[in-house]
Every structure is written in structure tokens, then in C-alpha cells.
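In response to reviewer comment 3 from the previous cycle, which asked for concrete evidence that the modeling workflow produces usable outputs, we include below a single protein chain processed end to end. The sequence was submitted unchanged, and the resulting C-alpha cells are shown without manual editing.
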Amino acid sequence: MCQSLVQMFGLLFLLPVLVHSEDSSWPAREFRGAFVATVANMDWPSSRHLTTNQQKNELINLLDKLQKLNFNAIVLQVRPAGDALYNSKLEPWSYYLTGEQGKPPSPSYDPLEFAITEAHKRNIEVHAWFNPYRARSGSTSSVGLAQNNVAHIYPQYVYKYGHDLWMDPGASVIQDHAVKVFLDVVTRYDIDGVHIDDYFYPYPVSGTDFPDSHTYSSYKTSGGNLGLSDWRRNNINTLIQNLSTRIKTIKPYVKFGISPFGIWQPGYPHGIHGFNSFTSLYADSRKWFKEGWLDYLAPQLYWQIDPPAQSYPALLDWWLEQNTHQHHVYTSNYASAVIAKHWSTHELERQVEISRSRDRKSFGNIHFSAKVFVENMHGMSDVFHAKVYTSPALTPEMSWLSCPNPPKPSNVKTHGYNISWTPDTSGHVRSYAIFHFIAEVFGLVTVLPKDSSSFAVTEIGSYVIVSVNRIGIQSTEERFTIGLSTSSVIG
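The workflow returned the following C-alpha cells.
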């Protein structure tokens, strides 16, 4: 198990670390994520008719803009509907890549592998986002399904429900297939996290119950004694607990997170009204968090601050109270509401400020969706760059995960304003962080990719460089001083 920051640095790094020396309090550790939706070509790729090079260039542009805005994570939708945005032997290539399900990109490339490589160059984590049970989205209802789509493999357990095709979470073969899909990606790709959104059992279609009566009857016949609603919830609980355990068995450093519907049940907390995800989606999201199955919870608090019926701060505080294992809460924020609901950019700015004000309890935000920032809709990028994400940040430390400790930077040298060091060869470094000691705190100056070996600072003073591993554990530090004529080797 990696050492904690307390062991590494003592009391100093338990204190809030500031990015600026003025009156701001932007944290040096904060999860700053953006959802990158592929369903309906929402965020990327923008069209199913793009060439391979166009897809690559579009993704590079997206990552460049997020890096410039000091984001440090994307939640990339890799399985929107029983399909794959990566090279899979279990499921067909996605319709959203090529316009034909099962047809690979040409010239051939692996979009997920490409995304990971390019994101990591920019110190951006990649959390692979899966829809566990949707077999076809309504946006492709007239499109043919590939022969290896789950609807053809297990037709008795895939139903038309509303405009979609939906897998039956109560069928063991469906559960097993979903787990294989998740673990295949964990095994073969250098992802930083596994992510599920709010779709478990589907959102209800008015007047139509989900058609799983034969699966439930089989359960009862075999001796099961749960009522229908409890049985459905137990099916989802089983999936979440199973994934939590098996992801860590394969790679104990891969993070597991879910962004459920933001209201667990109406009345929690008092005065909250709205859709009941516990009884309608059969999602006992509070249980998943309280049991410690999740490394982070990102409740979709897609409401404004002030309306009391769905109060952003009231719901955030309630979710923070459920965090019995002291894992992480990263609020999901509805950035697209500046278009869809005509919210002001100030609303989103205030929401991040509220999350930050719950110091040491709320650790960041994930914004839906990336397109708002990439296209600077209603000036969102300008606002966030100037007022919200003004400087880089490391992702928060997850000390309960397991990974090798990062070695400290070696052969650190200074010459004038330039710093150099020998790049890591251990494979245990994800990035380097340089801090500047100003006004009695170490302010984060920059975060650099693992292959970096030099950096030029702009001010004289005392500095620290550390290496950081993939779960946020920092190495012991190398301290150095930059002066007008500094030239030295540090350790």
C-alpha cells in the first residue's frame, strides 16, 4: 500500500495548499473532469462520417482545449449501447464511429488507446464510461445491429422498451457478459478509472412496466423470496459489488466511480422533491457509497443553487454525509444548461465555489459535457479560465488504493531559471509537480507529464519538485533555489 501524505511530508502538506499567493484559495488538488459523450455523436466524434485522421484531430483539439483550461480528467463514453469505442472481441464497433455497427475505423486505429495516449501526454486522466445495460439507443432505432450485438446473442433477455433496446439486469448471462466487458477494458487498457452513469434499469416509460416478468418468475421458482423491487435493486447491487472487487483484483490502482441521479429518494434531505431513483431506476446509490464499493461518487446535481425543491448545496451536503468511508465526492454539474436551460455562466461558477467551500469533504467536479468548454458556449471557457480553473491542479490522493510509491526526482539540476532532472525509468510516475514557496505556503506552479525532464520557472525563490504516481501519492521532495545566477545540482 502506498504511503500516505502524512508519512511523506508531515504536517506541512496536511494544510490547504494554495495555487496563488494572493487572496484566492484555488486548491492544488482537485478533480476537474469533463464528460465526453459519444452517444448520438454528442461530444466526440462529432459525426459518424469523419475519417480516422479527422477523428484523431478532433480529439486532440478537445484535449488541447481542456488542458489549456486546466482540466485534469475526462470521463470518456466507450460503451454507449452494447457497442465499443475500442477494439473488442466481445462487442461490435460502435455505430457512432463509422455509421455502421460492427464496421471498424479505416484506416484502422483504436480510439480508446489513442485517447489514453494523448490524454496522458497532457496529464489528463481517462475514466472509461460504460452503459451497462442499454443494447441500442433510440437515436439508432432504424439502424441494423451487428451479429455480435448482445441482442442477437441473448435475444430472450433483450427487450424493446420505449425507443431503446434494453438488456435484462436480472439474467445471469447478461450480468456475466457486462462484467466481462468491463474487465476486458480494465485488463487491456491503461485507463485511470471505470465509470457508470445513471442508467441501470431504464427510466420508466409511462404506463409500461419493464418486461422482465419471466426472469423474475424463474428467480421465484428457484426459491428466491425478494419482492420485485428489492430483487431488481439486488441485481444492480450485485453488479456494483462484483465490479468493485474484481477491478481491484486486476489493477488495484484503477478507480471506480458512478454518477447516479442526484436524488436518492425524495425527502433526503428534508424538503427535497423530485424523481425517485431508488424506486424507479432500482439504484440504491447511497448503499454503494456507504458500503465503500466506490472510490468516488459523482451525483448528478443538475439543478440550480437556489430552488429549495432540488437545492444544489442541500443535496451536496447530504451526499457528503453518506461518505462513511471517507472516499471522494466529485459533483456532476450541468454545464450544458447554459444552452439547454439558459443558465448563466455565473451559476456554474458559484456551484464550483460551493463544492470547494466544503473543504476536505468535496474533492472536485465533473462537467456535462465537454462540448460546452471546447466550443466556449456562452463564454464558459473564458469564465472558467479567468475565474475558476486559473491554474493547474493534481487529482486528489486516493490513499486507500494500492500502487508502488513513486521515486523522488533524481539528478535535479538548476541553471539560471531552468530546472532539469533524469526522467523516471521505474514506471511508477504519472507526473511531476513543481511548487513555489510564497507567503509561507507552497503554491503549485505546474504539473508535467511523466516523460518530462526540464522546466523553466519565471521567478526567483525556493521551490520543490516531487513525482506523483497514478493515485496521487507524492514522492519525497527535492528542494532547490532559483536565483539570478543559480547553477547547482540538488541531490
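The chain has two domains: 1-28+398-491, 30-388. We consider this sufficient to address the reviewer's concern, and the full set will be provided in the supplementary archive.
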